[in-house]
Design goal:
Length: 383
């Protein structure tokens, strides 16, 4: 049913419209004013269109690019004047007295025109929104990739990454989770951002094939691919977390697995306050970002492993394996440095030598294991 604004002075024409448009809602001026509401088309005579010219123009402009078509009703003698004074302010004209078949056809054409422009306007708005989302996503993608390059620790990478994702141009809420290999196949949240920490407090997450594992995060880990829920209020698989998400203004979510050496080690979850927020292009872009984050994590872990191995190698080279005290090699190098410093600064140096008397009796009497425990300040395991 369409809403049609009727601005006609001729009573016969108004009666005819009431008869042929009984399935539509007919509107008219109220207290000398055009109703402040949306309507789908206007049927007006010349006098009314001149009188309400500015008001109708404002209504039409407010709904642009969707069109509110105007069907002008004039006497044949008024046609020339109407076209010269109201050019561009009406889409079609019909000559009075009105004839039902012609009027029905003209109105049907006007309503089809209206519907076409509404659909075009909606598509344009959707395209504009998609472009805005992609622009935001590209800016986030660029900033986050820079973080991947310069981050020195996992904590720095994850915390600053979430700050970018939930910044002024980002998402409503975001968190990183690690896939645990326990009996429940639980997901441990290790970092989050967005002011909705309460959302995570009682959140039981799993990547197993169970009720808690059917949401986007669990499915993304299990299937090694992005998972999206475009409407958290209607998605049956999101039922365990629906109420809490609604309380925190979350309406859609994108979950992205973090893959290291083809194994899913965790997940990045991005929440939007809008339903249907994640278009295909944005999902693809964020999927690329998740892969880059995983590469960054892998590189950081490799560096950490190398640093740890370097420390262990240095300890093996300069520390006694049993007592962890500096060994002969360390002493010789330190003595060399100390001797050079003494000569350079014309200073004296001294070496203190400590010997443990009677240590052989511990080994001979209690065994070498007891001697090792004694030397290493460790408790001996009970027999």
């Amino acid at each position: 049913m369409a809403q049609i604004l009727v601005l006609l002075g001729h009573s016969g024409n108004k009666r005819l419209l009431s008869q042929i448009l009984e399935n539509h809602e007919l509107l008219g001026p109220q207290n000398g004013l055009i109703p402040d509401r949306n309507f789908d088309m206007v049927i007006a005579d010349l006098g009314a269109l001149v009188k309400w010219r500015d008001t109708l123009a404002a209504h039409r402009e407010a709904q642009a690019p969707a069109l509110i078509p105007v069907l002008l009703v004039v006497r044949e003698s008024q046609l020339s004047r109407a076209r010269s004074t109201l050019d561009g302010q009406f889409e079609d004209v019909v000559v009075s007295p009105l004839r039902a078949p012609e009027l029905i056809a003209r109105i049907a054409n006007m309503l089809r025109l209206r519907q076409s422009t509404v659909e075009l306007s909606q598509r344009a708005n959707e395209s504009e929104s998609a472009l805005e989302n992609m622009d935001r996503a590209f800016r986030i993608f660029s900033a986050c990739n820079e973080l991947v390059i310069r981050a020195k620790t996992e904590t720095e990478l994850l915390d600053e990454m979430l700050g970018q994702l939930v910044g002024d141009h980002g998402y409503r809420f975001a968190w990183f989770g690690i896939a645990q290999h326990d009996e429940q196949k639980s997901v441990e949240v290790i970092a989050h951002c967005g002011g909705a920490a309460e959302y995570l407090e009682n959140m039981q997450l799993s990547w197993g094939d169970n009720a808690q594992g059917q949401g986007p995060a669990g499915s993304a880990i299990r299937r090694c691919q992005p998972e999206v829920s475009q409407n958290l209020h209607t998605d049956p698989l999101f039922d365990p977390w629906r109420g809490s998400a609604a309380q925190h203004g979350m309406n859609s979510v994108l979950a992205l697995p973090l893959l290291i050496s083809e194994n899913t080690v965790g997940v990045l979850a991005l929440y939007s306050e809008k339903p249907n927020a994640f278009g295909e292009s944005e999902i693809e872009l964020m999927w690329r970002l998740a892969k880059n984050i995983a590469l960054g994590l892998s590189a950081l872990r490799s560096h950490q492993a190398l640093d740890a191995e370097k420390e262990r190698a240095e300890e093996r080279a300069y520390r006694d394996a049993l007592t962890k005290l500096p060994n002969r090699q360390w002493v010789l190098e330190e003595l060399g440095s100390l001797e050079a410093k003494s000569e350079r600064e014309q200073a004296h140096a001294a070496v203190l030598f400590i010997d443990l008397d009677g240590f052989k009796r511990v080994n001979d009497g209690l065994g070498h294991e007891a001697g090792d425990c004694f030397a290493g300040h460790r408790k001996m395991a009970p027999c």
